[in-house]
Amino acid sequence: MIDIKNIIASIVEEKKKNNKEPSIASFTEIQSVVIRSLKSEINELCKTGEIDKHKTLNGWAFSITETTN
Question: In this structure, which long-range contacts are made by residues 5-9, counting pairs with CB atoms below 8 Å and at least 24 apart in sequence?
Answer without folding.
Answer: 7/33, 7/34
